[in-house]
Write a structure and sequence with these properties.
The protein has 218 residues and is of the alpha+beta class. It has a single domain, classed as SMI1/KNR4-like, CATH 3.40.1580. Helix content is 39%, strand content 10%. It has seven helices and six strands. The longest helix is centred in the first third of the chain and has 18 residues. It is globular, with a radius of gyration of 18 Å. It starts with a helix and ends with a strand. InterPro entries: Knr4/Smi1-like_dom, Knr4/Smi1-like_sf. Pfam families: SMI1_KNR4. It comes from Streptomyces montanus.
């Protein structure tokens, strides 16, 4: 899916938030400027997918302190209690995940771990490792959103047909296959789901869930 599809899906989501969850919408950060994105790509040594770049050109995640105190809204923008990270938190969380992986082996095995991660980094995007004894995190995996409990969603930025796919992860591992083939696909899913639960001419009641997803309100 393309950057144009990302922008179309986000426009629908943003309009829905303006109508049904203005409190949540007010806590979304202003867009990331292009130079910040290029700097982040250089820092990480990856290429952001066009749809990820397009999404960040419209917003920069949920403010980190938005859920402190008594927030003026409830619910989550993405399924399974997930909210998008700001770019700075994306970089911070990625570093923490990589640090945690490094701590899974004794210093004597650090070189072997690094070599294995390098080999995994050469696999095509969408190649996953759910059966490993401990949680895996590759430098090319970028955490996009978190559930507040150590899990969330990452995008796989290795080259390949599934470059930019979105994968669920938990504190102990990750899914066996991507949840969405792209950020655009994820946002289109969200836009369609929100439209179904609260059409433009309808009202959103309290406690609205889609499965395990409490949608934004307030």
């Amino acid at each position: 899916m393309s950057a144009a599809e990302t922008l179309e899906a986000w426009s629908r989501i943003d309009a829905w938030l303006a109508r049904h969850a203005p409190g949540y919408r007010a806590h979304l950060n202003a867009p990331v400027v292009a130079e910040e994105l290029r700097q982040a790509e250089r820092q990480l040594g990856v290429v952001f997918s066009p749809d990820l770049t397009a999404w960040w050109s419209r917003m920069n995640g949920l403010a980190p302190d938005a859920r402190s105190g008594a927030p003026s809204y409830q619910g989550h923008l993405l399924p399974e209690y997930n909210d998008p990270y700001p770019l700075a938190q994306v970089l911070e969380r990625r570093a923490l995940h990589l640090e945690a992986v490094g701590e899974t082996v004794p210093p004597s095995l650090a070189d072997q771990l690094a070599a294995w991660l390098t080999r995994c980094g050469e696999d095509p995007a969408g190649t996953l490792y759910p059966d490993e004894a401990s949680a895996v995190w590759l430098p090319q995996w970028l955490p996009l959103a978190g559930d507040g409990m150590g899990g969330g969603l990452f995008t796989d930025l290795r080259p390949g047909e599934l470059h930019g796919c979105v994968v669920r992860f938990t504190r102990t591992g990750h899914a066996a296959e991507p949840e969405w083939t792209s950020v655009a696909g994820m946002l289109t899913f969200v836009a369609d789901a929100l439209s179904d639960v609260a059409p433009d001419n309808g009202d959103l009641g309290d406690g609205t869930h889609i499965g395990r997803w409490p949608v934004p309100r307030g």
